[in-house]
Amino acid sequence: MLTSLVATMLFIFNLQSQVGEDEWPVFRGKADLSGSVSFDLPSSPRLLWSLPSGGRSKSSPVISENVIYFGNDKGTLFAVTKEGRIKWKFEAGNAIEAAPLVSQDKVFFGASDGVLRAVNKLTGKLVWSFKSGAQIAGSANIWTSGKKSGLVFGSYDYFLYCVEPSSGKLLWKIETANYVNGTPAIGYNSVVFAGCDGIVRFADPLTGREKDTIKIGVYIAASPALAEKRAYFGDYEGNLYCVDIERGKFVWKVPSDDNSGAFIATPAVSSNKVIIGNEDKFLYCYNSDTGKPIWKFRTNGRITGSGVAGPSMILAGSTDSNIYILQTGDGKKIWSFNAGAPVSSSPAVTRDRFYFVTDDGRLLAFGNK
């Protein structure tokens, strides 16, 4: 009993302490995928530099120890210094659609050939690879409990996998009934994920045992965001949900209407607000407790990337080629920047900087000069 309690406490502690103000090592910044930061962004940032990757990209960047990592559709994984210089490149030979994951001395990423690869963080040399049965479109996530840890990722072969970070050895896998497109969220002693079978699953990170399932009945291409023991996510028809993780019950649902588009993005959850972009070109803000709408902001393009929210600002990109900073209180625009190409990715954020990857494959760095 005591051992179990200690392990649980360690697990919760490690999830909460993975990220500092200068680190963004995983998609959405933290294992819970909440996309929230404790600080606000510069209100008038400037473009510091732009680095072309030589190919189109859907990948979002991540940051570890002042090095930015991202992939492109040609299958190249880049490690780039804070000054915009390429440190190393790894050629996977197949499209890298999702953000990499950085943990300890390795960078992990999946590709369209269905292989999850681990490369050395300092050199870019391959350490190990794990072959799934179909393409990997979402990012990996990581849990830690005491001396144990696991990399969790989905595949289009209908499985969610968990492998050892050190060796790539399979620890467990969960079979679903369709593609697993998004990134699994980790928090509150659960791995929470959904897929194109329209089912939200809650699993034990250590064993892979399914603790609960909720049938939505609609494709879920997006990843859930976890906060305050709740999971927030949208579906392909434009419905938005809030689910109690411990009880496995709906807290609220915002139904779609005739003008709704698909939710591909993951919500940002901060300061009692849930903020999410939709393919109908709007960025929406709801009360996290009730689902009551607070504001909406229209862009001129689909919003498929996920925003990042601070105490009073939300940062998000749009396929109208613009990057926006809005006030979280009322949705009014503070700042925007025309990136010269659609922005489908999600940003990586530190206290003094943020980074985006454009659809034409450029890594953009913003901050105060």
Explain how this protein is built:
The protein is mainly beta and 369 residues long. The protein has a single domain, classed as YVTN repeat-like/Quinoprotein amine dehydrogenase (Methylamine Dehydrogenase, Chain H), CATH 2.130.10.10. It is 4% helix and 43% strand. It is built from one helix and 32 strands. The protein is globular, with a radius of gyration of 19 Å. The N terminus is likely disordered.
Features:
mainly beta; 4-stranded antiparallel β-sheet; Methylamine Dehydrogenase, Chain H; 43% strand; globular; 32 strands; 369 residues; single chain; disordered N terminus
* Overall pLDDT metric: 94
Strand tally is 32
Strand order of the largest sheet: 1-32-31-30
Low-confidence stretches: 1-18
CATH topological fold name: Methylamine Dehydrogenase, Chain H
**Alpha-beta classification:** mainly beta
Dominant shape: globular
Task: Using the 3D structure, state the CATH architecture.
Answer: 7 Propeller
- What fraction of the residues are assigned to beta strands by DSSP? 35-45%
CATH superfamily: YVTN repeat-like/Quinoprotein amine dehydrogenase
The CATH first-level class comes to Mainly Beta
Give the count of helical stretches: 1
* Percent of residues in helices: under 10%
- In the residues, how many domains can be counted? 1
Cα-based radius of gyration, to the nearest Å: 19 Å
